[in-house]
Design brief:
Layout: H1 2-38, H2 43-53, H3 55-69, H4 73-100, H5 108-129, H6 135-214, H7 224-241, E1 245-252, H8 255-262, H9 264-281, E2 287-290, E3 295-301, H10 305-320, E4 335-342, H11 350-366, E5 372-374, E6 380-381
Helix pairs in contact: 1-6, 2-4, 2-6, 3-4, 3-6, 4-5, 5-6, 8-9
The structure holds guanosine-5'-triphosphate.
Length: 382
């Protein structure tokens, strides 16, 4: 049952982890694809560059007007300078477009306009560096310059808009990035919280299992297995510190009658009441366990034979007069007790102690029950 629960929890945890992983991978992939173009681009700087180069068209027009009014070499030189500035700015704008990585589909028409400018520029430069003494050449230069200026203005204004749109996308992307990070953080927290809860549950179940495997369910006392652990430790400690350890086996007399006359459930209640009474009478360092049907074992570390005898006698006489709640509050039971003691200098094992106490218990039963007998080389009865 617990195994099934644990493996279900394991599957849930793995599924949660895979889900979180998938969500993270999807979000990161989507983000990376979109962010690739935008994240590193400085659209703001590019936009202000474009505003600056838009002034080139104004310079060109001014140079043409001056040349028209007064076709002097000085104005011709101004025109040549303006054209050379435009040429180099066109080149650096192209370079900037490649750097900000605008999607080619978005700026295809701008690109076409740039090609047109590329075609017009050499013609303009040739005219501007030729002889401009007759009106016809100036007129041709003027119209070509106007066509060039139109194209330039269109290209730059389109580009400006594209860059603004890209900057808006970049801002939106950053917003998404924030939300993505918040979502990932929340998922991670959820996952960690789930993991902690699951671990808490697992450890809780483990503790409950340990408790159950060490406890007798009728009386709530330690069971045989828990007693063996405790006794092993107590005996090892006693050997090291040369202290005595006593062990008592307590067995009800004619318990069968209780079951027969009052029913098994009432028999259980009697066992429980006895266990509670026993717990109240012993020291904190003592351990009591139910090791069989109606047989109990009391481990008394650091207790000599006389001390054990005194306590067990008190137990025996208390039980003999104990009103049993499950059977009309009447005292109706006695116990027989066998005690064995190991001294500090002895290295008796639990099994030895147990069989000595069992031997003494057998003697108590044979000698008429309701007795406490300590195991000695010759058994000693009270
Ligand atoms: N109610 C209840 N009875 C139990 C439990 N375990 C064992 N018993 C009963 O305890 C009785 C033990 O019977 P016996 O071994 O003959 O011992 P006894 O009747 O106490 O007689 P002596 O020990 O010889 O004095 C049986 O009737 C078992 O059914 C239990 O968990 N609950």
């Amino acid at each position: 049952m617990a195994d099934r629960h644990l493996s279900r929890m394991r599957v849930t945890l793995i599924a949660a982890f895979v889900l979180v992983l998938l969500v993270m991978i999807t979000l990161i992939t989507l983000f990376t694809i979109n962010a690739h173009r935008h994240v590193g681009a400085d659209y703001l700087a590019f936009a202000s560059d474009i505003v600056r180069v838009q002034q080139d068209g104004v310079q060109l027009r001014l140079a043409i007007e001056s040349l028209e009014e007064n076709p002097e070499p000085l104005h011709q030189q101004q025109l040549q300078r303006a054209l050379s500035v435009i040429a180099s700015r066109l080149e650096s704008t192209r370079h900037a477009i490649r750097n900000v990585q605008l999607a080619p589909v978005d700026y295809r028409h701008v690109h076409r306009e740039f090609d047109n400018l590329d075609a017009l520029l050499p013609r303009l430069e040739a005219l501007a560096s030729g002889s401009l003494e007759d009106e016809e050449s100036i007129e041709e230069l003027k119209w070509l310059a106007l066509e060039f200026d139109d194209s330039l203005a269109y290209a730059y204004s389109e580009l400006h808009e594209l860059v603004h749109a890209a900057a808006a996308q970049q801002r939106q992307l950053m917003g998404w990035l924030n939300w993505t990070l918040i979502l990932l953080g929340a998922l991670l927290l959820l996952f960690i919280a789930g993991l902690l809860l699951a671990m808490d549950k697992i450890f809780g179940q483990k503790r409950a299992l340990e408790r159950l495997s060490a406890t007798d369910e009728v009386t709530g006392l330690n069971n045989r297995r828990a007693l063996l652990d405790t006794a092993g430790r107590a005996l090892a400690l006693a050997r090291r510190s040369h202290q005595p350890v006593s062990l008592a086996l307590i067995d009800f007399d004619h318990f069968k009658r209780i079951n027969d006359e009052h029913g098994h459930p009432n028999g259980d209640r009697v066992l429980k009441q006895f266990a509670d009474t026993l717990q109240e009478m012993i020291r904190q360092t003592d351990t009591v366990a139910r090791i069989g049907g109606e047989e109990f074992c009391l481990l008394m570390p650091n207790t000599e034979r006389n001390g054990a005898m005194e306590l067990c006698e008190r137990i025996r006489s208390t039980i003999a007069t104990l009103p049993l709640e499950a059977i009309d509050g009447q005292p109706a039971l006695t116990v027989s007790i066998g005690i064995a003691t190991t001294h500090g200098d002895s290295d008796a094992s639990f099994n030895t102690l147990y069989s000595q106490a069992d031997h003494a218990l057998y003697e108590a039963k044979v000698k008429g029950r309701n007795k406490t007998i300590t195991y000695k080389r010759q058994l000693q009865a009270i």
